[in-house]
From TrEMBL:
GO terms for molecular function: GTP binding; GTPase activity. Residues 67-228 form the GB1/RHD3-type G domain. One of its GO terms (cellular component) is endoplasmic reticulum. Residues 1-20 form the signal peptide. Belongs to the TRAFAC class dynamin-like GTPase superfamily. GB1/RHD3 GTPase family. This is Guanylate-binding protein. SUPFAM superfamilies: P-loop containing nucleoside triphosphate hydrolases. PANTHER family: GUANYLATE BINDING PROTEIN.
């Protein structure tokens, strides 16, 4: 029942925490002023040994913070223990100090960040936060870690020592060692200052350590009814008893003026959020974590209010911090950094460390064949060979370590696990290096095979038929693939081995790239074949035009077709087929052949049109000649004569001209141009006959003109008595016929003469009279209009 009540209270607390989270964040944003963004204050040299000051950051301290007295909050601890994330959370941000999900350190050297912040009581704090590079980073010495710790500690008003999950004996010992070395370092710094006759504000209490808060993140252990600070104090007391009276190490309780401990629960239970905490929002964080974080913040600000700078240390301005920092860096980069081992423990550790180093050196020496520069020119070891070499090297290093520490059990046993770990780490390192060499070797062979394949593929002369191309490339591909397999087969791993099988990886790449190259060459071959086909079509087209242009046009259609058939068969079925033999089996050959056939057919039509045009020109010429002959013949007829005789003579001339045209163009009788022009010739001759007949009428009219003039005068005088043209024309016709009937015996000719006389000589008089059709039309319109008016009147 008690357990149920506890869970109920915890659930209610979580709900309350979540509901109050957002207003708290808004309040934090209102109470937070950033003076400048995080910048790197100190960074290491290339060897990660000496410390270098970032002068641009010093300028910020001297300018932006020249008058403000600052509380300096420093955070130290092992790498990837969450120091940067903790500082961000203390000030309500997520990404000011860099936080990363990888195994590599994100913070190098010491970074600083300045801000003003109000606590829950409205008290303003001028803060300079120091984020530090974590301890135990790869390729970093213990002395370097001690320098970072010492400088951060002596600059800080309040120091946070950050760890993860638990506080064990090694952590206590390491903090005591760092603290003692920092004491000695502070002493050396003060001596150095006195030697330089330098007065630094706050240097008198440089030996005063800041207050210490030990923060244990990701803590989920059960400490019973104890507070975290009580739990830490009990650990320190037990640790002091275990050290014994002869130990030269002092307790951290003798060094730091006050020590508190705070634990923080896991920020989240979601692995993705934990891996990307720099992107996490307040809603993503565990309510228990937020509660404990707020308690930590409250304690830190309370200590800052109660103790000024913290631990009795005075707050410093930016320039004072800059001056102090330069002194500390100079001392840290000077003589050997202070060390504090006891005599025996130092000896044991020294022997242990020496044995470890010698054993690892021996192991590396045995394994050096993998990483030597000369080894890169040789094939790497296969997995079986590597494991054999590694086993021999491991046994040799283990036996050497045992011999070096013979009789020193207290050094041998503690270091044995470390040796095994180091050997395991080095085993993984050399295994990784060997796999890297295998990767490079397989890649080199792959590159050589690809280059060889490209060269041999390039040597294939194109265009060739796809059948021959596929046969050659298939043989070439199999040769290259088998050659690669033969050279690298010893690196083909079993499928159950948890490693990248570079043999398979590059084999697959080789097969894919060979296919890609083959496809590219195949496409190139097809393009060459299509170019050949296109050029062949152009060639036979030009040849065809050349042959046909040599013909003496016009010729008969039958002759033209025979010429086309002869050249068509010669060029398409012989020449084109011979030139494009390489493409006969290709799927796209027939469309190109059809294109060639179409091209020749179009050319035949073109020459057929030209020939027809030539026939037309010849037909027109012969037609014109026939018309000239006709005109010449009829011009010899003396007019006027009787129309029957004239018509008979001209018809004879017409038949003669037409027959002449037909005889001269007999070969082209089936041509449309021949027929068309013949029709035009017949029409033209008819017009010539008509003209000649009209001319004969005119001539005859002049013969009887005296009689017609009498009729003209008479009809002009009688015009007023006529209303209509029709009656006028009839009267004029009767009068004219009466006077010329004896002179012109042929009635058709007489009628034409009279009609011409009336239309020409009495034209003016005729136009002055009404036409019967005009009168009838006018009467019709009047009648329709009258009917419409009557209808509209009735409707109204």
């Amino acid at each position: 029942m008690k357990l149920k009540n506890i869970f109920l209270l915890l659930f209610i607390y979580i709900l309350v925490s979540i509901s109050s989270q957002q207003p708290q964040q808004q309040q934090q944003q209102q109470n937070f002023i950033e003076l400048f963004k995080p910048v790197q204050l100190i960074y290491p040299d290339s060897n990660h040994d000496r410390l270098i000051i970032n002068e641009s950051s010093i300028n910020l301290l001297n300018s932006v913070l020249s008058e403000d007295r600052l509380s300096v909050l420093g955070v130290v601890g092992t790498f990837h223990s969450g120091k940067s994330f903790l500082l961000n959370q203390l000030l309500g941000t997520t990404d000011s100090f860099t936080v990363g999900p990888t195994v590599h350190p994100q913070t190098i050297g010491i970074w600083m960040w300045a801000c003003r912040i109000k606590d829950d009581n409205g008290k303003q704090h001028n803060l300079l936060l120091l984020d530090t590079e974590g301890f135990y980073s790869s390729n970093v010495s213990e002395t370097y870690d001690a320098k970072i710790f010492a400088i951060t500690t002596l600059l800080s008003s309040h120091l946070i020592y950050n760890s993860v999950k638990i506080i064990d004996q090694s952590a206590l010992e390491y903090l005591e060692l760092l603290s003692r070395r920092t004491q000695l370092f502070a002493l050396k710094s003060q001596i150095k200052s006195n030697e330089m006759n330098q007065e630094i504000l706050g240097l008198n209490n440089i030996l005063n350590f800041p207050s210490l808060t030990w923060v244990v993140q990701d803590f989920f252990q059960d400490i019973g009814d104890e507070t975290p600070t009580q739990w830490l104090n009990n650990l320190l007391k037990a640790h002091s008893r275990d050290k014994g009276v002869d130990s030269s190490l002092i307790s951290i309780t003798d060094i730091f003026p006050s020590i508190e401990c705070h634990t923080l629960f896991l920020p989240s239970g979601d692995r993705n959020i934990l891996r990307h905490l720099n992107k996490a929002k307040s809603n993503d964080l565990n309510p228990i974590y937020i509660k404990e974080l707020n308690e930590l913040k409250s304690t830190l600000f309370k200590n800052d209010n109660d103790n000024g700078g913290g631990g009795g240390k005075s707050k410093l301005t930016g320039p004072s911090i800059s001056t102090l920092l330069r002194l500390l860096i100079e001392v840290a980069n000077g003589n050997k950094f202070p060390t504090v081992p006891s005599i025996w423990s130092g000896f044991i550790k020294q022997q242990q460390q020496s044995a470890l180093e010698d054993s690892i050196i021996a192991y590396k020496d045995k394994m050096s064949s993998i990483t030597n520069e000369d080894s890169f020119s040789k094939p790497p070891l296969c997995l079986k060979e590597f494991e054999k070499l590694e086993s021999q090297s491991n046994n040799y290093a283990t036996n050497l370590y045992k011999q070096l520490l013979f009789g020193l059990e207290e050094a041998y046993k503690p270091g044995q696990q470390k040796l095994e770990r180091l050997l395991s780490d080095n085993h993984q390192y050399f295994l990784k290096e060997n796999y890297f060499k295998i990767q490079n070797y397989c890649q080199r062979i792959y590159n050589e095979m690809i280059e060889s394949f490209e060269n041999q593929l390039e040597s294939i002369k194109i265009p060739i038929s796809s059948k021959h191309f596929n046969h050659q490339t298939s043989i070439l591909k199999n040769e290259i693939i088998n050659q690669y397999k033969e050279i690298t087969k010893q690196y083909n791993l079993n499928r159950n081995q948890n490693q990248n099988n570079y043999f398979e990886i590059f084999l697959n790449s080789l097969e894919k790239d060979i296919e890609r190259l083959i496809n590219g060459k195949q496409l190139q071959n097809r393009n060459e074949i299509e170019i050949l086909l296109t050029k062949s079509i152009d060639m036979i087209s030009e040849r065809y035009k050349s042959y046909m242009n040599q013909l003496d046009l016009p010729i008969t259609l039958e002759q033209l077709k025979n010429e086309d058939k002869k050249h068509y068969n010669q060029l398409l079925n012989s020449k084109f087929k011979q030139i494009t033999e390489v493409a006969h089996e290709e799927s796209y050959y027939q469309p190109f052949k059809s294109m060639a056939e179409k091209q020749l057919h179009q050319l035949f039509q073109y020459f057929q049109e030209i020939n027809e045009q030539k026939i037309l020109e010849k037909s027109k010429f012969e037609s014109d000649q026939s018309i000239l002959d006709f005109k010449k013949s009829v011009s010899q007829i003396i007019l006027p004569i009787e129309e029957e005789s004239l018509v008979k003579s001209m018809n004879e001339f017409k038949i003669r001209s037409i027959n002449s045209y037909k005889n001269r163009l007999e070969p082209f009788r089936n041509s449309n141009s021949y027929s068309t022009q013949l029709n035009k010739l017949e029409s033209s001759l008819e017009k010539q006959i008509e003209l000649k007949l009209n001319e004969n009428v005119t001539q005859m009219k002049w013969i009887v003109m005296e009689s017609l003039d009498t009729v003209r005068v008479m009809m002009i005088s009688r015009t007023p008595i006529f209303w209509f043209q029709h009656s006028y024309e009839n009267e004029a016709y009767r009068e004219a016929e009466k006077r010329i009937i004896d002179k012109i015996k042929s009635k058709p000719l007489r009628d034409k003469v009279i009609k011409q006389f009336i239309n020409n000589d009495l034209k003016q008089q005729l136009n002055s009279l009404f036409k019967l059709s005009t009168i009838l039309l006018t009467l019709g319109i009047i009648l329709i209009f009258s009917i419409l008016i009557s209808f509209s009147t009735i409707k109204k």
